[in-house]
Fold these 4 entries.
Entry 1:
Amino acid sequence: MTEQQLMKIYQETIHPLYGYMARRTGGNRELTEDIVQESYLRALDSWKSGSPPDMPLAWLKRVARNVQPWKPKG
């Protein structure tokens, strides 16, 4: 994966991913930022030796849900 490919994915996914996690964390900015950052770090590690998945945002959301250190109420 090239740096250009990664930047394109980042630019296309950062706002939707951040918004998604902000809703899931109840607007907790610090927690949202930590989860989003960890999701991208895991993506870099996973995608460095190959290509990204066909739907990177879906992949990132799934990772973010698994990173999430709390369980939603309900």
Entry 2:
Amino acid sequence: MIRPYAVSDLAAIEKAITKSDLGLTPNNDGQQIRLNIPPLTEERRRELTKVVAKRAEEARVAVRNVRRDAIHDLREMQKESMISEDDLHRAQERIQERTDEYIKKVDETAREKDEEIMTL
């Protein structure tokens, strides 16, 4: 049950729930929204693990995009003689280490969430 502080927000909340990939149908009675959440079947659990995998891949891509942008900025700084080539290489190595660290965290979180979803 969702009871917003401002009743005027009910329509926006209902619309957001309907648009989500959760497969839930909100029931709006004018004061609150009720969500009937059925027990998870094996099929639904597998669908949710696919959603987790999709979100994890989106997170990995986002981390790689940040790495790409940071390395691009460093190369621009090196072209403008703001940093030396050695500093560029050291910074690239540190960025790669951080990238690997965060991708590992994303993978761990996705694996833990998959186990949680599949646990009866």
Entry 3:
Amino acid sequence: MSPVAGAPQHHILSVLVENKSGVLARVASLFARRGYNIFSLAVAPTEDERFSRITIVVDVESAPLEQIVKQLFKIISVVRISELDPRHAVERELLLATVRAESSQRSEVLELVRIFEGKILAVGAEALTVSLEGHPDKVDDFEEMLRPYGFVELQRTGRVALPKLEREAARLRSLRGRAS
């Protein structure tokens, strides 16, 4: 897939860090000191409570990747850094929004939520609170379609991403299981 002219280009970094206080602040501080633009940042503990995963989406123009990686590895609590190629990664983002929806427009907003496979979380007299989880492009499209109705409030989580599973390896495991 070739990049669209004028579209921002991003690196997705998955940074495994020790789950200790102050680590996120040190990572964010490094980006601020160097003037690197963070497009998106998400952090949460992993399956192993000793570690957290920070998913950082950075603008290619503002941040030479090799320099970022070198600087991140200087932070003692950084265990592993992986660059995730969007073509070989599973990406998701969550959007929560309270959208103006008077009775005359409510069915239109409900239809958009249905088409995008979102959820209605709360219903008020003149607004709806909706959520959508999906690929960031899908979330972008949903946000743009809702924009004309007007947002009371909008919050997005930022991207989270993991490498795609290798299909060949899964197929081989299943074949080995039958041979036993």
Entry 4:
Amino acid sequence: MVQFSAKDDSQSGPGRGLRDVNSKSSLGVSLGGTFTVLAANQMLPLITRIVADLMTLSVDLEEQCEQIRGIESLPTSNKIAAFADELKAIKESFSADRQRLVSCHRELSSLGVKIDSLSTGMIDFPAFLNRRPVMLCWKLGETAVTHWHQINESYEQRREIGAHCFDPAPPSVV
């Protein structure tokens, strides 16, 4: 699997430099990076497109890696000009796709969401429930954000949102 390094991510956090870190956008998300269920659901059309692009790019990059390894593993006597041209084209495509992948990661990061699992399209939205940090969670293909889990829990341990009321902003530090 193609790995994404955190060091490739944007140096600024979600919403930095836009407004005061405690202000809220029109979607009801704190620019400090926490979401209400409504805000998370309003962002789904955009998140869906980005996650779908990321998943496609990830598969494409993996296939390109296999092609590159296959060509590079050929015995030297078999490396004729046709293979050299093909290898160059694949490496150029890989580089362009890698940049697009990094750009999509940065875009998700700038929106304040976190990738739980790219291979399955699982995304977390930081939130607060009863003044405790939690994650609202969503998976590509779902029509709405309907579950949540504790910070230290996995997606498999998620619970239905039900009647829970998620805090619109992080608790104030006293």
